[in-house]
Design goal:
40% of the residues lie in helices and 14% in strands. With 305 residues, it is an alpha/beta fold. Strands 7-6-5-8-9 form a five-stranded parallel sheet. It has a four-stranded parallel sheet with strand order 2-1-3-4, sandwiched between helices. Bound molecules: phosphoric acid mono(formamide)ester and norvaline.
């Protein structure tokens, strides 16, 4: 059975916590000795149909530090950008590499890659989800606050891929999560229902202030994601009042952890003073991408012992 990492649910609640523990261990003593290089002799194809800084570099460095060989492939620099079907790419790569990571548009492209690949496929962001980022966000929140249970998590802004993965995390771990999204920009109804069925306290509100009230961890993201550039102006208007400002943050717990997956648009979804302020852990969160990328890779490749 191939271990694909399409979503956090593939890990399950226990696997998710184990991955966070593994990431904590990877964060100690970078550049492990040769004996701890589980990817020695293995290659991983890192496919990008959208731009990336953190995901690309964290995965590339993670594979290298685990002793493997990363092969970065962009759509423009490969036949993918000229329309070669995902199913053909999947079968060719499966004969050459030991795992594939894919950043793409619709989730159906990731599903097609998984269906035709005979090696593990990891989701490096789709229009619908971003599970790798959630591993880093949970790792960061847990490090700062000591534990995840009993905290109030808030999401401010677009009900996008990040919001959907937060809902999935809340469902798996039984977290309290309040999302403030303008009407018309709600997260996935399916994801919300699934989290509720799993027993999590997840709700969507229209007032940023009520989501922020007493929040322990607050996350936000750009108002227009990759692929939505043409909607930028319309979205700026729809999201008026949804910027994570000092004023809004004053409603949160004094120990609040501010997260942003980055890249950030200062003055749009987050105020400069909040991003650069004392409760911002965004740089730790970015670093956590490296440690959690290692955890995700060793899990998917069955090397997690
Ligand atoms: N947070 C994140 O996924 O960043 P990149 O788009 O730079 O990979
Ligand atoms: N929601 C953003 C996340 C970027 C890491 C996007 O999809 O562009």
């Amino acid at each position: 059975m191939i271990r694909h990492f399409a979503s956090l649910s593939d890990l399950g609640p226990e696997g998710l916590m184990k991955a966070l523990d593994a990431a904590d261990r990877f964060s100690v003593g970078r550049g492990a000795p040769a004996a701890q290089r589980p990817l020695a002799g293995k290659s991983v194809a890192l496919l990008f149909e959208k731009a990336s800084t953190r995901t690309r570099i964290s995965l590339e460095v993670a594979v290298a530090e685990l002793g493997g060989h990363p092969v970065v492939v962009t759509a423009q620099g490969s036949q993918m950008g000229r329309g070669e079907p995902i199913r053909d790419t999947a079968r060719v790569l499966s004969r050459m590499v030991h795992a594939i990571t894919l950043r793409t548009f619709g989730e159906e492209r990731l599903r097609e890659m998984m269906q035709y690949s005979s090696v593990p496929v990891l989701n490096a962001l789709t229009d619908e989800s971003h599970p790798m980022q959630l591993l880093a966000d949970l790792m960061t929140a847990r490090r700062v606050r000591g534990a995840l249970g009993g905290l109030k998590f808030a999401w401010l802004g677009d009900g996008n891929n990040m919001a959907n993965s937060w809902i999935e995390a809340a469902g798996l771990l039984g977290l309290e999560l309040v999302l403030a999204c303008p009407e018309g920009y709600d997260p996935s109804a399916r994801e919300l229902l699934r989290a509720k069925e799993r027993g999590a306290r997840v709700s969507v509100v229209r007032q940023p202030a009520s989501a922020l009230e007493g929040a322990d961890v607050v996350s936000t993201d750009v108002f227009a994601s990759m692929g939505q550039e043409a909607e930028q102006q319309r979205r700026l208007e729809a999201f008026r009042g949804f910027m994570l400002s000092r004023e809004l943050l004053a409603r949160a717990s004094k120990d609040v952890v501010v997260l942003h997956c980055l890249p950030a648009h200062r003055g749009e979804e987050i105020e400069e003073e909040v991003l650069e302020g004392p409760r911002s852990f965004v740089w730790d969160e970015a670093e956590a991408r490296l440690h959690t990328a290692k955890a995700a890779l060793v899990w998917a490749m069955g090397l997690d012992g």
